[in-house]
């Protein structure tokens, strides 16, 4: 049995976008405002500095600042998971220690990127992070970007440790998700990564999800989760399909994060542009962003009207 409160990690956790000012520097006030917006939306938590959070495009100091802004605003209300993955183990360890010092609820990390690493190397990397704090640790498995295939064997070995409470799986195989759940056991969390498969992942064993597009439509994912929890599968599926059409549109822009940030800006949350090499939305695409935002807001109002 894990001694951590696993329930605080079950549910909808937004992979939060980073906030920059006009010159591209971390914007602390904007980060606090965005975190507040999310806390008021009713989600369970925030995942800071991951893929959507552009942690890999920031310096160690910038990553600390972004996390500090979020924790100071919502650390008492939401579960805050600090993604500390970095190419160098020592940077990850520094970030993990900092996260613990300022009150993060868990740390998480991808395998060290860039080098093609062996499983023992990835294991040692993760172990150094785990050993550096008393915080629970969530593995971040995203082979399509890291190139590292996490085996069920290594997952099982990691999951046997008290501090390793779960895995966020962004691979698109729900079979793999189910195998990880089976290997980890009941008190090991499996968190769904691909937002397009939230309901599929949940149905086959995921305890919740961490996703980037949740950040522009938290109400819709909360609704899918509520429908699922109440056994209303047809309704849950209907909304997953609506969400998927929206995600397909989001993915049609030069960068997904640029599109999501442009939508947030329309709602009064200016988080700046994504960092290069991620592309912002072009001026000529703004009418399409506007229309997409209206559609999402319309669905959010509909869901609110339906209650549950
Ligand atoms: C690479 C990436 O950003 N993955 C996110 C997390 O796993 C997802 O939330 C996607 O943004 C989402 O599923 C859209 O494809
Ligand atoms: C974790 C995740 O979904 C992301 O960082 O985008």
Summarize the structure.
This is Dihydrodipicolinate synthase family protein. The chain is an alpha/beta fold and 308 residues long. The chain has helices spanning 28-41, 60-74, 89-102, 119-131, 143-146, 152-159, 174-184, 198-203, 218-229, 233-250, 256-266, 286-306, and strands spanning 12-15, 45-48, 79-83, 106-109, 137-141, 164-169, 189-192, 208-211.
Description:
The protein has 308 residues and is an alpha/beta fold. The chain has twelve helices and eight strands. It has helices at 28-41, 60-74, 89-102, 119-131, 143-146, 152-159, 174-184, 198-203, 218-229, 233-250, 256-266, 286-306, and strands spanning 12-15, 45-48, 79-83, 106-109, 137-141, 164-169, 189-192, 208-211. It has an eight-stranded parallel barrel, surrounded by seven helices. α1 (28-41) crosses α2, α2 packs parallel to α3 and α11 packs across α12 (286-306). Bound molecules: 2-(acetylamino)-2-deoxy-D-mannose and pyruvic acid (PYR).
Report the sheet-strand fraction.
5-15%
Spatial order of the strands forming the largest sheet: 1-2-3-4-5-6-7-8
- Average the pLDDT over all residues and give the rounded result: 97
Q: Identify low-pLDDT runs.
A: none
Rg from Cα: 18 Å
Number of helices: 12
Order of SSEs: EHEHEHEHEHHEHEHEHHHH
Number of strands: 8
Helix/strand/pairing class, anyone?
alpha/beta
The bound ligands are:
2-(acetylamino)-2-deoxy-D-mannose, pyruvic acid
User: Tell me, what's the shape?
Assistant: globular
Largest sheet, in brief, is: 8 strands, parallel, barrel
What is the helical fraction, as a range of percent?
40-55%
Q: Whole-Å distance between the termini? A: 33 Å
């Amino acid at each position: 049995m894990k001694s951590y409160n696993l329930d605080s990690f079950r549910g909808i956790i937004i992979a939060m976008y980073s906030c920059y000012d006009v010159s591209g520097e971390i914007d602390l006030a904007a980060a606090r405002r965005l975190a507040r917006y999310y806390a008021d939306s009713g989600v369970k938590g925030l995942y800071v500095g991951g893929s959507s959070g552009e942690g890999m495009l920031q310096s160690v100091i910038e990553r600390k600042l972004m996390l500090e802004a979020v924790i100071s605003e919502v650390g008492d209300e939401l579960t805050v998971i600090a993604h500390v993955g970095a190419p160098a183990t020592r940077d990850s360890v520094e970030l993990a220690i900092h996260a613990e010092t300022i009150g993060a609820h868990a740390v998480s990390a991808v395998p060290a990127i860039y080098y093609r690493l062996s499983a023992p190397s990835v294991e040692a990397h993760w172990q150094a992070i785990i050993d550096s704090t008393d915080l629970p640790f969530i593995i971040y498995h995203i082979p399509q970007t890291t190139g590292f295939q996490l085996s069920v064997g290594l997952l099982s070995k990691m999951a046997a440790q008290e501090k390793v409470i779960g895995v966020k799986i962004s691979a698109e195989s729900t079979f793999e998700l189910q195998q990880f759940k089976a290997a980890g056991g009941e008190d090991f969390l499996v968190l769904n990564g691909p937002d397009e498969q939230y309901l599929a992942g949940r149905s086959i064993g995921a305890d919740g999800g961490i996703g980037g597009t949740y950040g522009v439509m938290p109400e819709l994912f909360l609704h899918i989760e509520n429908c699922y929890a109440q056994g209303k599968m047809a309704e849950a599926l209907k909304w997953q399909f609506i969400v998927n059409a929206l995600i397909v549109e989001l993915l049609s822009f030069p960068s997904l994060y640029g599109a999501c940030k442009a939508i947030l800006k329309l709602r009064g949350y200016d988080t700046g542009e994504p960092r290069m090499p991620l592309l912002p939305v072009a001026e000529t695409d703004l009418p399409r962003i506007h229309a997409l935002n209206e559609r999402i807001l319309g669905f959010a109002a509909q869901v609110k009207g339906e209650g549950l």
